[in-house]
Automatic annotation (TrEMBL):
Pfam families: CRISPR_assoc. It comes from the Bacteria. SUPFAM superfamilies: CRISPR-associated protein. This is CRISPR system Cascade subunit CasE.
């Protein structure tokens, strides 16, 4: 399996500058754990923008993971090198082969932007597949309402740290790594891009920014998991785990 890691930067020229607000809109500051209501549309715009480097045919399935680094920069892990021009929207990509020589016991620092979900069992029928829920939202819903804003924010981050750790430990059991250290840098909720209206009625998904250290248990499993991505919402810039030697 051959993979490629690319750094993409939106081009700085008058033509791209004229449409910059459309392809790379600026988000509003997060408030109370809810990102800018347009954040989902921003993620969708970025996904479509990156497709300009990979969508060579209309039948092509997405075979890349990506994350925004801000200021018009993106990191992409793909099964094919990106196109060199991208319709002139990007500067020439900085691409290299991604083939880390991993050994059992290696310690790796990582960063990961994740939409972490689990399947909630149906209490009325254990054999029936339950609903898929965001691990943090599911915990937050159990918090008492009516708290002061700061207290609820602290409780939300504490819930994110606990749920994020349990989720990533579960991922590691399937993906050939052992979680040794974890920091949850941020957790927020993003409305789906096609939805408008009251917050209470909007379909949303949670986004966690995670960092820490893992130990390699099974190198082949880990490489396969890195290529596939961890968690869901991969079209929205989640799932790409970046690693380096600790």
């Amino acid at each position: 399996m051959t993979l490629y890691l690319s750094r993409l930067t939106i081009a700085r020229n008058p033509t791209v500058a004229a449409i910059r607000a459309l392809i790379d809109p600026l988000p509003a500051p997060a408030r109370g754990g809810l990102r800018d209501p347009a954040q989902g549309r921003i993620m969708d715009a970025h996904h479509r923008l990156i497709w300009s480097l990979f969508g060579d045919t209309s039948e092509r399935a997405r075979d890349f993971l990506w994350r925004s680094e801000g200021k018009g920069q993106f990191l992409v892990l793909s099964h094919r090198p990106p196109s060199a021009d991208g319709a002139g929207l990007f500067s020439p990509p900085q691409t290299k082969a991604f083939a880390p020589d991993l050994r059992e016991g290696d310690r790796l620092a990582f960063v990961l932007r994740a939409n972490a979900t689990r399947t909630r069992k149906d209490p009325t029928d254990p054999q029936k597949r339950g609903a898929r829920v965001d691990v943090v939202m599911d915990t937050i819903h159990a918090l008492p309402s009516g708290r002061a804003c700061n207290a609820r924010r602290d409780a939300r981050m504490s819930a994110a740290e606990d749920a994020g750790r349990r989720w990533l430990e579960h991922q590691g059991a399937k993906a050939g790594f052992i979680l040794e250290h974890l920091i949850v840098d941020d957790y927020s909720v993003v409305p789906l891009p096609a939805q408008v209206g009251p917050r209470r009625e909007q379909p949303q998904f949670g986004v966690m920014d995670l960092a820490g250290q893992i130990r390699v248990g099974d190198p082949a499993l880990l490489l396969a998991a890195l290529a596939q991505g961890l968690g869901r919402a991969k079209a929205f810039g989640c799932g790409l785990m970046l690693i380096r030697r600790a």
